[in-house]
Design a protein that fits this description.
alpha/beta; Rossmann fold; Alpha-Beta Plaits; six-stranded mixed β-sheet; four-stranded antiparallel β-sheet; 13 strands; globular
């Protein structure tokens, strides 16, 4: 997978200031075609400003951007034809129905009315809003607005999706459906960049992650790489004392976990291979283990380690 003149996102040394505030300070990263790339960072790290520049809605002060081979500054129309943009708030015509909004957006992208209407119906069914097709957008809940916003981003079958907090306001079932949909779209060859604070969701849907802080790119990581990193595991057994002794015999420092109601032991392990070895050792030592899993998601582990490294 990779960026090319036919697909993917590439940003090289991109900067953007608002007066004296430098929101983006030379971000460099790639989001390859056929993959879901997570964009992760704290509030104020420049994520939304970056997404606006990628969508051709804001011009960078310097640096180079390519969206499916097109430059959003030199050829914004080509970029807008290629991009499906889902902002963190819907921002629609409140008096129009869901179907009218999608058909109108389809026409703005040059679709024939009949084709736009057919596509609108397919997408409303995809996001479970078909029963609300004729209801005005002003009556929609936050979760329904998010699902309509996703349908709107997909109306012209874009090659690139830019999604800003797409899971915000969604119920658990809708979150699962979103994850499955994005994985299907990536498998079909689309480039997907997702900004979200829900790192557990990104663990399940993303292939790779770009971490940003203070307007800069601080780390790029594939989910395969994340599985080999040093991370904390939570282990529970019927006899906690026996568990601690077995871990100590293995040369591992462990401590009682205090961050959840369930009694468990925390131990730091160097990736999945060592975790499998330790679990095997515990079972062979006669420790009755009934829970053994990472204490946090892989992306959350990386995020927290990066935060801890800040001066």
């Amino acid at each position: 997978m990779g960026t090319s003149e036919h697909g993917g996102i590439s940003a090289q040394g991109v900067t953007r200031s608002f007066g004296t505030v430098q929101a983006v300070r030379g971000m460099t990263f790639e989001a390859p075609q056929g993959a879901v790339t997570a964009l992760i960072g704290p509030n104020g790290s420049g994520k939304t400003t970056l997404l606006l520049m990628l969508a051709s809605l804001l011009a960078p002060d310097s640096g180079a951007i390519r969206i499916a081979g097109a430059d959003p500054v030199q050829d914004p129309l080509a970029v807008r034809r290629s991009v499906g943009w889902m902002p963190d708030t819907l921002g629609v015509w409140d008096s129009l129905t869901a179907a009218e909004i999608l058909v109108t957006m389809g026409k703005l992208y040059g679709m024939a009315p009949a084709a736009a209407a057919q596509r609108a119906g397919e997408l409303l069914a995809e996001v479970r809003l078909l029963d609300f097709a004729d209801k005005p957008a002003r009556v929609f809940s936050r979760g329904q607005q998010q699902r309509l916003s996703l349908a709107r981003a997909l109306i012209h079958d874009p090659a690139v999706l830019l999604l800003d907090e797409p899971a915000s306001g969604l119920d658990p079932g809708s979150r699962v459906e979103l994850r499955l949909l994005l994985r299907r779209l990536a498998s079909a060859g689309k480039t997907i960049l997702v900004s979200s604070h829900v790192l557990s969701e990104l663990d399940e849907m993303a292939d790779r992650a770009v971490f940003v802080s203070g307007g800069e790119t601080v780390k790029t990581q594939s989910l395969d790489d994340a599985g080999t990193q040093l991370r904390w595991y939570a282990v529970s057994a019927r006899n906690t004392g026996a568990l601690l002794r077995a871990l100590e015999a293995r040369g591992l420092a462990a401590s009682l976990g205090e961050e959840s109601r369930r009694s468990h032991v925390r131990v730091q392990l160097g990736g999945e291979e060592q975790a499998a070895e330790v679990l095997r050792h515990l079972v062979q030592s006669g420790v009755e283990v009934f829970a053994f899993a990472p204490a946090t998601g892989a992306l959350e582990e990386t995020y927290m380690s990066l935060e801890a490294e800040k001066p």
